[in-house]
């Protein structure tokens, strides 16, 4: 299936998905237009991804347990490198968090991965390698390819049926509690299949976050300049001592009417589920010099 979605005024990302690994390339395309074939592929992807998506928490629990297990050294070096990068860079440490760190973490949370690739491929637009370095979706795609080479004909183990609600446009974000570290007494082949299944489920969840931010009908051409943009749905693993919960966020306009000369208002909704506190939901709204916070 060929899927082409415009990611900037000058370029679109062409995703060629098949039974093997997807091929990625940039191509010229009119802005904000999706072909009928791409719209059909998107419509087919959403229910499939919703049925298989999983929280990022089990993935990070498995990756952390693998790195700490002595048998980790027996895995192929390229696989170890990506897993170590995932554990080290795939999230944020609240103890060292500041505005710049949060901004960088949001940019690398996964949904902007293809936009970063497209910006590198557009002549004259300038290259910014940091736009894709350390990106969560990029690391997961790389890890999935490496694990498939290791598994050969063996299929990834499907993720747990206990899945969080899938990301949907208009719904509030959902924080996900940390998963317990798995028992590493299982044989390496089973552990690899389990990790591959968690990677597939996490990728499906990121794809749903991307789909939720698309225009209502991307096939009808450019939207009005004053059209209200959709919220961006993002999820960030938090590297806490002994656990890695997932912070859910949505960032977008506050939905209020904008008067002439008045700045647009923005809001960030967040959700976090910790072992000691349970679920906490919050909202931060900004309009001009006014700020409101609600828990």
| Poorly predicted tracts of residues | 1-31, 126-131
Q: Strand order across the biggest sheet?
A: 4-5-6-7-8
N-C termini distance: 44 Å
Determine the mean pLDDT: 79
Helix/strand order, N-terminal first: EEEHHHHHHHEEEEE
Fraction of residues in β-strands: 15-25%
Helix content: 25-40%
Radius of gyration: 20 Å
Query: How many individual helices?
Result: 7
User: What is the global morphology?
Assistant: globular
Q: Count of DSSP E strands?
A: 8
Structural class: alpha+beta
Largest sheet: 5 strands, antiparallel
List keywords for this structure.
295 residues; alpha+beta; five-stranded antiparallel sheet; 35% helix
Give an overview in words.
With 295 residues, the protein is of the alpha+beta class. The protein has helices at residues 36-52, 56-68, 77-89, 99-107, 113-121, 136-151, 188-212; strands spanning 2-6, 12-16, 23-27, 232-237, 246-253, 266-274, 278-287, 290-294. Helix 6 runs antiparallel to helix 7 (188-212). The protein is globular, with a radius of gyration of 20 Å.
Sum this structure up briefly.
The protein has 295 residues and is an alpha+beta fold.
List the helices and strands and how they pair.
Blueprint: E1 2-6, E2 12-16, E3 23-27, H1 36-52, H2 56-68, H3 77-89, H4 99-107, H5 113-121, H6 136-151, H7 188-212, E4 232-237, E5 246-253, E6 266-274, E7 278-287, E8 290-294
Antiparallel strand pairs: 1-2, 2-3, 4-5, 5-6, 6-7, 7-8
């Amino acid at each position: 299936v060929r899927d082409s979605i415009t990611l900037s005024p000058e370029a679109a990302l062409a995703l060629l998905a098949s039974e093997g690994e997807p091929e990625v390339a940039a191509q010229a395309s009119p802005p904000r237009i999706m072909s009928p074939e791409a719209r059909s592929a998107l419509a087919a992807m959403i229910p499939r991804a919703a049925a298989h998506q999983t929280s990022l928490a089990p993935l990070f629990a498995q990756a952390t347990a693998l790195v700490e297990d002595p048998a980790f050294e027996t895995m192929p070096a390229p696989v170890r490198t990506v897993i170590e990068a995932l554990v080290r860079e795939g999230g944020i440490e609240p103890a060292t968090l500041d505005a710049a760190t949060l901004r960088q973490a949001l940019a690398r949370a996964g949904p902007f991965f293809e936009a970063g690739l497209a910006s590198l491929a557009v002549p004259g637009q300038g290259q910014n390698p940091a736009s894709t370095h350390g990106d969560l979706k990029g690391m997961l795609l790389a890890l999935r390819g490496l694990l498939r080479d290791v598994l050969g004909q063996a299929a990834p183990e499907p993720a747990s049926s206990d899945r969080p609600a899938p990301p949907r446009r208009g719904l509030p974000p959902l924080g996900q509690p940390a998963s317990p570290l798995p028992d590493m007494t299982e044989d390496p082949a089973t552990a690899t299949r389990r990790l591959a299944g968690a990677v597939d489920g996490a990728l499906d969840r990121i794809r749903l976050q991307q789909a939720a931010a698309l225009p209502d009908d991307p096939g009808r051409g450019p939207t009005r300049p004053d059209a209200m943009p959709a919220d961006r749905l993002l999820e960030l693993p938090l590297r806490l001592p002994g656990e890695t919960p997932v912070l859910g966020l949505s960032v977008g306009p506050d939905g209020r009417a904008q008067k002439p000369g008045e700045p647009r208002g923005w809001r960030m909704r967040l959700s976090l589920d910790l072992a000691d506190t349970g679920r906490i939901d919050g909202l931060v709204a900004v309009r001009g010099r006014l700020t409101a916070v609600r828990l």
